[in-house]
Amino acid sequence: MYFDLNEENLAVRQAAREFAQQELLPGVIERDTTMKFPTEQVKRMGEMGFLGMMVSPEYGGGGMDTISYALAMEEISKIDNSCSVIMSVNNSLVCWGLEKMGTEAQKQKYLPKLATGEWIGSFCLSEPEAGSDATSQKTTAIDKGDHYLLNGTKNWITNGGSSGLHLVMAQANPAAGHKGICTFIVETSWPGVTIGAKEDKLGIRSSDTHTIMYNDVIVPKENLLGPAGDGFKFAMKTLTGGRIGIASQALGIAAGAYERALAYSKERMSFGKPLSSHQAIAFKLADMATEVEAARLLIHRSCWMKDQGMDFTVAASMAKLFASEVAMRQTVEAVQIHGGYGYVKEYHVERLMRDAKITQIYEGTSEVQRIVISRSILQGQLSQPMWSN
Ligand code: CAA
Questions:
Q1: How far, in Å, is the centroid of ligand 1 from the Cα of 354?
Q2: 323 Cβ inside 6 Å of ligand 1
Q3: What pLDDT does 385 receive?
Q4: 238 in ligand 1 pocket by Cβ < 6 Å?
Q5: Looking at the whole model, is its pTM more than 0.85?
Q6: The pLDDT value given to residue 45
Q7: Which residues are catalytic, by number?
Q8: Given 42, 64, 346, 362, which is the most exposed site by the fewest CB atoms within 10 A?
Q9: Of ligand 1's atoms, which has the minimum distance to the CA of residue 362?
Q10: Confidence class of residue 95 from pLDDT cuts 50, 70 and 90?
Q11: Which atom of ligand 1 is nearest to the CA of 375?
Q12: Are 71 and 108 in contact (CB under 8 A)?
């Protein structure tokens, strides 16, 4: 068993670390306070190749492995989680879905724009009454011969106010249940696409989260993504990879909070010695370091399984479940170690604590991950270590 990162992985991690420190850290508090979308920063992420990391070079992407993507997500998430969720949705939901399921014409038309950041994309599955219960799609797509007519409302759509393209899941044959759901590529400039107000959120505040309304949107038949009726399975498969991205975001939040708590505890004197010399604090640091490392191992294992072509569904759910719970626990601890300073914006850990919460909710709540894992256990699929089957 090898745990080495290759040269490309190390170079990507270093580039992401420097980019986050030099270009995301300045202004991150202000963007969070004012909810200002990071337009310049997203443009730079596109220029640096962070928006289409795993897309094949023939469509303008970086052609990298999933580990490189997870490493970049971790580094960027230590600093700015509005930027990292924009990056995660674009890479692992929109670009990955298009590349895996798209026709050659669809890939050539859309992927170069998305991989370079000329456009960013949104993944439109959630609805007012279909969050975790994702098969209950109320958005409809009626077959009109040479096009579909799309009607409905999508909620909590990341990149909703700034994306050029949506992947929209909609019910085209209600009698068939989830087997009637289709996925459509919808350009946001098309008539009938309306963007609702930007949500005022607890965390990831400068990312762009909107309700989207589709009113009699004409979607040409060539913009159906994958076979008709495969839309739900498409969403599930795509979200499985997305869960690695969000797990990496959660890891970055936890690791960022840990690194800040460690540095602060070495500088801050109390009762005549550094905080870190008090066992109460040193033990917290030990627990934080251990949990961060365990989350990293689960994530890297799921990346490796994905890149080997193995079924990584449960591995990704375990990684997301654990990393997001670690992010929540460890950011609370980081605020505690900082004491009163931790409660103010200047020290960054209160923002990380607010950002951590969403990682337990989006791309499948912790409860949804437990459904995926427990079903697998009860079907007898987890009796051996997953990677040695
Ligand atoms: N890969 C392929 N197929 C899958 C699959 C997967 N990972 N998971 C399920 N399926 C298939 C099943 O095999 C089944 O197919 P058959 O009927 O042919 O057997 C079909 O899909 C239905 O599956 P289930 O019976 O398991 O469906 P369910 O109703 O019990 O739901 C669920 C299961 C796990 C709860 C699922 O609905 C789910 O994951 N919900 C959460 C949705 C979610 O993650 N939303 C995130 C929104 S996007 C977002 O957050 C992005 C952002 O902006 C940050």
A1: 27
A2: no
A3: 61
A4: no
A5: yes
A6: 98
A7: 363
A8: 346
A9: 50
A10: very high
A11: 26
A12: no
* 296: amino acid identity, one letter: R
For the Cβ of 363 lying below 6 angstroms from any atom of ligand 1, the answer is yes
**Which residue, chain included where needed, has tokens 């590349």?**
99
Ordered structural domains, the chain, with CATH: 7-119 (1.10.540.10), 122-229 (2.40.110.10), 232-388 (1.20.140.10)
Half-sphere exposure of 101 (CA within 13 A, CB side): 27
CB-CB contact of 50 with 16 (8 Å): yes
Q: What does the block give as tokens for 86?
A: 């924009």
